[in-house]
């Protein structure tokens, strides 16, 4: 007796499913990413704390130390210079914020850092100091 149309379709689906399964199995075998060597999985950290693939004995440490020192010195020089800005907010509780002219960054200040009384909207000169919460303005003078 002949198979009905639905039986033929079901058989075709089964064969297609089996072919897809075998093709996926073969693809997994050819593109196997497991079992990498230990050298491929190791990553090193350089002097500046960045990830690198070079082992420590091949890194140029003196040059990296020199770069790090220059970067720290440049940042320290930047903090020692005078900045200018506008007092954008003053609280009755004894603190405020200055909007820096060059970067439009808000810098916190405390009334104790003021050399003379200032009000909102005044143009001021100040020095920046790094704190755990960010920059703080010190030695604030009216322009």
Fold blueprint:
Elements: H1 5-30, H2 38-41, E1 44-45, E2 51-52, H3 61-80, E3 83-90, E4 95-100, E5 106-110, E6 123-131, E7 134-142
Antiparallel strand pairs: 1-2, 3-4, 3-6, 4-5, 6-7
What does this protein structure show overall?
- Helices cover 35% and strands 29% of the residues.
- By secondary structure, the chain is an alpha+beta fold.
- The strands form two sheets. It has a five-stranded antiparallel beta sheet, with no helix packed on it.
- 9% of the residues are buried.
- The mean pLDDT is 84.
Produce a short descriptive summary.
With 143 residues, this protein is α+β, with helices and mostly antiparallel strands.
Return the CATH topology of the largest domain: OB fold (Dihydrolipoamide Acetyltransferase, E2P)
Gross geometry: elongated
What does the main sheet amount to? 5 strands, antiparallel
Helix count equals: 3
Widest sheet: strand order? 5-4-3-6-7
Question: How large is the radius of gyration?
Answer: 33 Å
Keywords:
143 residues, OB fold (Dihydrolipoamide Acetyltransferase, E2P), 5-stranded antiparallel sheet, two-stranded antiparallel ribbon, 3 helices, 35% helix
